[in-house]
Amino acid sequence: MSRYYKDLPPTPPDYPNHERAAYAQKLHPSCQAAEYQHTVLKHQNCRLQKQNTELQREVTQLREQASQLEDKIKKYQQYIRQQNESFVLVTRTVCSAFEKYRESTGGLSAQSSNASPIDQVLDAYTAFSDSEEDLMFF
Question: Measured between alpha carbons, how far is 12 from 14 in angstroms, rounded to an integer?
């Protein structure tokens, strides 16, 4: 590798005014840095305040939605209670109608009142059996 040398720029002449300018330049960048930092912080503060406002608005909206949902839940619970009460009322009405029917047909024989309709159908089928044992006896 070859080595390259670069000439440095010439040093500024040492004038008394130049020393004052260098001193002023040292003070000036720090002032600029402080002003810049102040501006950056102001912008950051504004951005954070806007973000805070938006978040507060969202929280308010979410609370309103939660309140509306709670109201809907209460209405649905009330509706379910009413439906359950109606179902219980219908069931009781049907059961009492069956009990009244049973009481009104109390004159039936003991066998028919104790036997269910399915038992009666099964008895009818077993009376006419087609099993092989029944056929062997003939």
Answer: 6
